[in-house]
Amino acid sequence: MSVTPLRGSDRPEVSTEINKLIQSETLHGSESLCKLLRYLAQHAVEHPGTPLKEYQIATEVFGRPTDFDPHLDSAIRVQAGRWRMKLAEYYAVEGSGDPLIVELPKGTYVLNFYPKSRRKPIEPKERVQHDRLPAGATKPVPLRPTSGRRLAVFITVLLLLLIAAAIPIIVLLAQRRAANSSTVPSAAAPTAAQAFWRPFVDAPDEPWVVFSNGAFIGRPETGMRYFDPRRDAADKILDHYTGVGEVLAIHELDRIFSMMHRELRVKRGSLLSLDDAKNKNLIFVGSPAENLSLLEMPGSREFVFRRVDSGRRKGDLGIFNVHPQAGEPLMFLATPGPPLIEDYATITLTSGLNPGRHMLILGGTTTLGTQAAVEFVCRDDSLAQLLLRLSVGKTVDIRPFEAVLRVKVTRGVPVETHLVSLRKTGL
After folding, report:
1. Among the listed residues 211, 170, 193, 367, the one whose alpha carbon sits nearest the alpha carbon of residue 294
2. pLDDT band at residue 8 under the 50/70/90 scheme
3. 317-353 burial, b if ≥16 CB within 10 A, otherwise e?
4. pLDDT tens across 152-164, in order?
5. Residue 198 CA from chain centroid, whole number
6. Average confidence (pLDDT) over 78-85
7. Cα-flanking dihedrals φ and ψ of residue 383, to 5°?
């Protein structure tokens, strides 16, 4: 494939293509991938041909601490793999007519750009056209059958020798990998993540992730709205839809638990029974407005989701501050949209329905706030800040608490999240 190097005159075309990708349906809601794309594109334009390191991307793009070790944390490689898949998906559908192609070759973090017209199939390096031989050339003579048999025997013997030599090496590597995985079960997980998620990771059973699936009426092609019990029949409810933030949140939880070598069980809220909930550690993704199973559970006491009952914002979902402290508002409300500019979300850690069980609730007033809340408790830098405020250390376990997050949203993507209020409820 021929790749055209960047020139100064190419920058407007590159910028246009990058903006198309960021605003595409393929990348809608993928905050981390959009951040990665912007960074890689800027680097490719300003420093063409200069290689990028995983450490540089981890610390400058994703806010990893300075002691980030790419040998222990594969997050950047995972993101790059996701990005390559998204690129292929985009150019197969939405971007099929784009004049410029963006490519992230395997083994590098440097973007390539080239006009679509220059993508040509790779021809075999050696192709003999027997019907158009140059003057004086001799037509190739095929090998005699006896020569072919001798060659086949030689190749077979060589392969057997190579396999015999490789077997001890393969066995040794397998034994070493097994030893490493058994002696260092959580080596890849950041320290803050291990401290925060310890109650869920150390439990005998895998935790359940219960995601919201609100009750809707209507059809996708003609329009849908929330179920209204005052005028809608219950048998018309569609309960198999969830928000894009919930989907990305589950992916993020799966990533962090995989690093700690712990499996998750995922269940939609409408299918959760109280019998199931009694004996499980539960992670709820989505607010009680969407995750209706939370209405039957002991939940937040300090920061409660409630709809505004009067004024210009009547009917809007907000977070009611039950005991506001000095300088805090009585209600945390997202900006009216569209477009959404700012959202709020809560993190609530409380006891489960049975002693010894835990329940974590992560929800925003919109699906983007929910996504941001989950990302906040899966990223080492934000978790370290939270644990410091909670006085949690190596010898001090995390106790029940409630927190409010303010989420800045740009083009439908949560880009900044800050802890704005905290209550220690387990004292």
Report:
1. 211
2. very low
3. bbbbbeeeeeeeeeebbbeeeeebeebbbbbbbbebb
4. 555 665 565 556 5
5. 21
6. 83
7. -65, -40
Distance CA 368, CA 211 (A): 14
Phi, psi (degrees; rounded to nearest 5) at 356: 85, -5
Calpha distance 357→350 (Å, rounded): 9
Residues 6+ apart with CB under 8 A from 336: 313, 316
Domain limits for position 68: 8-118
Question: What's the distance, CA 194 to chain centroid?
Answer: 19
pLDDT for 297 equals: 62
Question: Are β-strands 303-307 and 317-321 bridged in parallel, bridged antiparallel, or unpaired?
Answer: antiparallel
Mark whether 274 and 373 lie in a shared domain.
yes
**Alpha helix locations (H) across 202-332?**
244-259, 274-278
| CATH number for 333 | 3.30.379.10
Residue 247 three-state SS: helix
370 neighbors 364 (Cβ within 8 angstroms): yes
The DSSP bridge partners found for residue 123 are none
Across the beta sheet with 282-285, what order do the strands follow?
Answer: 265-268, 208-211, 282-285, 358-364, 342-351, 401-410, 413-424
Phi, psi values for residue 89, rounded to 5°: -65, -40
Please give the helix or strand (H or E) that residue 359 lies within, else none.
strand 358-364
Going by their DSSP bridges, the two strands 358-364 and 282-285 should be labelled as parallel
Instruction: Tell me if 199 sits within 8 A of 358, measured CB to CB.
Output: yes
Q: CB atoms < 10 A from the CB of 99, how many?
A: 11
Residues forming a β-bridge with 306: 318
The domain tally of the chain equals 2
Q: How many CB atoms lie within 10 A of CB 258?
A: 15
* Residue 303: band (very low, low, confident or very high) from pLDDT cuts 50, 70, 90: very high
Tokens 């220690």 belong to 424
208 inside domain? yes
Pair 212, 108 in one domain: no
Among 118, 147, 170, give the residue marking a domain's end. Answer: 118
Which range, of 147-151, 214-218, 345-349, 379-383, averages the lowest pLDDT? 147-151
- Nearest one of 41, 44, 39, 72 to 56, comparing CA atoms: 39
Mean pLDDT of 333-344: 91
